[in-house]
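Recap from last week: sequence in, structure out.
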Amino acid sequence: MTTEPRAWLCRPRVLEQRVLAAIFSVTFHMTLLTAGALASAYVAAQGGLRVTALPRQPLLVLTVALVIAHCSLGALWWARSDWSLHTKSVVATFSFVGMWLLLIALLETTRRSGVAAAAWAACLVTQVVVTGLGATLLELAIHYQAAAARTRFSLLFLLIWMSVIAVVLGAAGALAARAGFQLAAVADWEYFRQLQGVGLAGAALAIGLDAGVRLPPRWSIRGLACFCTLVGITAAATGALTGVFGDRVGADFIDMIWLFGGEGLFLIATLVPFELAREAGGTQG
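Predicted structure tokens:
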């Protein structure tokens, strides 16, 4: 008899914690983007001269990092959400399409080339799928019974979503043919493999930071784990892409550091406050 009133009294506190987490996350996001805008203004004031440790377009790089980070966050949410598989899959799909369209609007290359836009879509798909699988395995390791119940697939679910994917691919192929290129040509684009590397690095960053925020017992260890993950994967991904593709990587060394580093900071700015709110509220999801 006493548990229900206490649970009812705790609900406003849980809501307050989540609101504060959202405010902190948005504030940190705006701070990072403001820093990018100031850096862009400084670069522009140099009259075209290259500035050490700054990309040519810092704000653009950070905005792309924001979009990529939120694709990973959508996959993490999908793995952790208690919503039905159909509902959360629909929401995640719409979120993914929205992020991709925003990316197309940001990048001049994707606006001019359908092949480039499709290659970026493939990059984001790789990142979302790998992140979702990794986050699901992490959920199974932490809360096996609850996670197993959330991720139990039925034949109907597979039938529906395989049909949806087939329809989307068919429509995309028809639109691509009308635009004058074949979807098979996307894999032959000169930067396709580089973007796949970006997607895999983004997935590793998201999974590593999610594990770093949730697995260690103390926040001091979690902070160290997140720092090491951010620095380590940023350096490893940048070095791997440069080593494999050399001059054909498609971006400067400093651009990649800003991209992966910014992506990691956006992930941390979201995962940390909401994990604190979750622990304060005593919930699992």
